[in-house]
Amino acid sequence: MREWREPVSILLVEDSRTDARLFQEMLAESDSPQFILHHATNLAESIGFLEQNEPDVMLLDMGLPDATGMEGVRRLRLGFPNVPLIVWTGLADESAGISAVKQGAQDYLVKGQADRAMVVRSIRYAIERHHNDSGTLADGGRFSLALEAANDGLWDWNLATDLMFFSTRWKAMLGLSEEAVSSSPKEWFERVHPDDQERLKHELDQHLSGQAPRFEMEHRVRHTDGAYRWVVSRGLAVRDAGGKAVRVAGSQTDITSHRLTIERLRDDAFHDALTGLPNRPLLLDRLGRAVKRLKRYDRYHFSLLFLDIDRFKVVNDSLGHLAGDELLVAIARKLTGCVRATDTVARLGGDEFAILLEDLGDVNISKSVADRILEQLRNPIELEGKPVFATASIGIVMGSHRYDRPEDVLRDADTAMYRAKSQGRNCYQIFQQEMHDGALLRLELENDLRRAVERYEFRVAYQPIMNLRTGNVAGFEALVRWYRPDCGVVFPADFLPVAEETGVIITVDRLVLHEACREFRAWQKQYPPDTPLRLSVNFSAHQFRQADLVEVTDRIMSETGFDPRNLAIEITESAYLEDPDSLTAVMKALKDRGIHLHVDDFGVGYSSLSYLRRFPIDAVKIDRSFINRVDQAESSDSLEIVRAVVALAKSLKIDVVAEGVEREEQKKYLQDLDCPYAQGYLFAKPLDPDNAKAFLAANLKVTQPV
Question: What share of the chain is helix, strand, coil (3-state, %, to 5)?
Fold first, then answer.
């Protein structure tokens, strides 16, 4: 017969040294009581120890190399019945832990779920239960020996007399005085929260009838201040010789602060810290429930709206991130005000939001909500004393039986949102299956583009630029072509937009520059050194944002032996808007090396006289959309635009290149305006290197280049 004493001697039978070390560290954190830990790594080693020593309690891992499952429990209970046994099991084997208790173990602990307090309680509990099972608990003895040190409230219920003892600590936990509590079990049960009473009685009945090895339950109990406290109640029955429960004694532990902490952590885990809205995991959870409900109930409908704030980066870059955060919070309030309380508004991250609309009687409600959101966003939001206007692109997906996973619904809503952006922003689009098919094709294109860079599948074509005054070739524009293995030549219009969005364009631009300079340099060697031919190469706006652009250009010039004075770099007007100060510095560095700078597609973007004055531009290229209509009767606007550009260029002393010249009438009109240079199918289509070289050979008499 054993008594509770300190220090407590423990034998841990555990083959994992990591788990054993963690267990030792857990016990070391305890202020009371003191523990002495002995460690055996297998069953044979533990038996050898037990033959020479009698610890207060032993903990057995059920996954030992020489005894798995119930085998170790049976051998230790048979050989050493006087030592209380606790089973130490993995989460997946919790049912095995319960079986072990039925086989004679006093308790079980689940790895990964047991904290220090739980381990200490289990050790005390095992020792006391061993006393109970051995008939050594005195008639007046309760769990005070085991639990008073753990600061728990104690109770003892005599089932024969239906009288109940409540310790001073149990009463104080609920704000009760000694005199305020009688010996009736109603003092406990009637204070339990109504929603927990039935389950509490069920759990007690399960243990008293022998169907559960012990009683343990978390529930709410009313304090004298009227609020409910969360507690965990544990108990163990004392049985007569026939196995009938004659009394049950146990403890009550206040876990209110623990529950509040858990609920707060759970709330933090499923809500956005900035806006307080549900986050992506919580949205996916609710969306998953909606998908399942739709499959069960024919009359249930839902839809998902995916929102992205248009040009949100402009606010962040101009007003700062704090202002950007304020804008997101304000938008979150607007979105919440546009839907019902039963709907879910979530922030997915960045400037992306989603709205789950449930129990829809009419699918048109989704459109109405989208219209309401767009209307609300038209009202300015004041940030730092300045009115800020925000718009949104919205994708809508209607719930459908074809969905099995919430992620697929979110994906399709995202796809529809991008379609709305491509349609000009500040609008919504409803998902159609062809959008998904297009997204798959785009993904395939993105992957193939990246592989194309690695496999050098890009080739350079050359289109001549002609001097309209002399009729001779003045230079060539280098144009990229992608030779995709499975479908042949892919033209720039079909892949450059994707290359720009993915950033692959940076590598493509540099490959084209290197290859064109290398090839052009070889042609120059075949002609007199003073032949003033010029090579034009396009650079994307992304390229001008690269910090190493000038350094890379210098390296390519050096590697290919190309004279930078024979190079013209073409840039679109849109690049001017993003960071004009940085662009000016880069342009100056390129000009210092003798490189010429041309504005491509002039007239279709953000054309401004101030750009031409601010930046060191050598030439502008008139977009083909204007040239294509100059010889048509109804094209007076195009005629005037071309005439104005040529006149403007002359006044600023910069050159002009007309793109897309296809007919003699267009050429004649340009010559009448004294436009110096042109390119287009009238002169030659983009040529492969061999044909470009032959074209050059046929035009040996060259003139001053553009």
Answer: 45, 25, 30
Q: Quick one: pLDDT at residue 558?
A: 95
CA dist., res. 324 & res. 330, Å (int): 10
pLDDT digits (tens, 9 = 90+) for 594-624: 999 998 877 665 555 666 777 888 999 998 8
| CA-wise closest residue to 376 among 353, 342, 397 | 353
Q: How far, in Å, CA of 543 to CA of 579, rounded? A: 13
Per-position b or e across 411-438, b if 16+ CB within 10 A of its CB: bbbbbbbbbbbeeeebbbbbbeeebeee
Contact 47, 2 (CB under 8 A): no
CA-closest candidate to residue 309, choices 366, 369, 389: 389
SS3 119: helix
**pLDDT mean values, one per 10 residues, the chain (706 residues):** 67 88 78 79 87 89 80 80 85 68 79 78 79 47 40 85 89 90 92 94 93 92 95 90 88 87 75 91 93 88 93 79 90 94 93 93 84 92 84 92 92 90 87 71 76 86 93 92 84 82 87 94 75 87 88 96 94 69 87 93 62 83 84 69 88 92 92 94 94 85 50
Question: Residue 528, preceding bond cis, omega within 30 degrees?
Answer: no
CA distances from 596 to 169, 430, 553, 584, 590 (A): 89, 47, 13, 14, 8
Angle at Cα 64 formed by Cα 62 and Cα 65, nearest 5°? 150
pLDDT at position 138: 37
Tens of pLDDT along 229-249?
999 999 998 888 888 999 898
Instruction: Give dist(CA 475, CA 534) in Å, integer.
Output: 5
Structure token digits, residue 220: 């709410």
Task: Indicate the burial class of 372 (C-beta count within 10 angstroms; 0-12, 13-18, 19 or more).
Answer: middle
Q: Quick check: 505 and 543 in contact, CB under 8 A?
A: yes
SS (H, E, C) 454-518: HHCCEEEEEEEEEECCCCCEEEEEEEEEEEECCCEEECHHHHHHHHHHHCHHHHHHHHHHHHHHH
Phi-psi domain of 456 (left: phi exceeds 0; alpha: psi -120 through 50; beta: other): left
Please tell me the distance from the alpha carbon of residue 422 to that of residue 400, in angstroms, as a whole number: 25
Short-list 674, 599, 673, 659, CA closest to 625: 659
Residue with tokens 């840039």: 571
Torsion 367-371-376-377 (CA) sign: positive
How many Å apart are CA 42 and CA 45, to the nearest integer?
5
CA 279 to CA 494: how far, in whole Å?
37
pLDDT score for 376: 92
Q: What is the pLDDT of residue 494?
A: 81
User: Distance between CA atoms of 23 and 39, rounded to whole angstroms?
Assistant: 11
d(CA 352, CA 272): 12
The single-letter DSSP state of residue 126 is H
Structure tokens at 51: 């033959």
Q: Which residues of 244-267 are buried (b: 16+ CB within 10 A; e: fewer)?
A: ebebbbbbbbbbeeebeeeeeeee
CA distance 250 to 215: 9
Cβ(475)–Cβ(462) below 8 Å: no
Report whether the peptide linkage leading into residue 7 is cis, meaning its omega lies within 30 degrees of zero. yes
The confidence score (pLDDT) of residue 334 equals 94
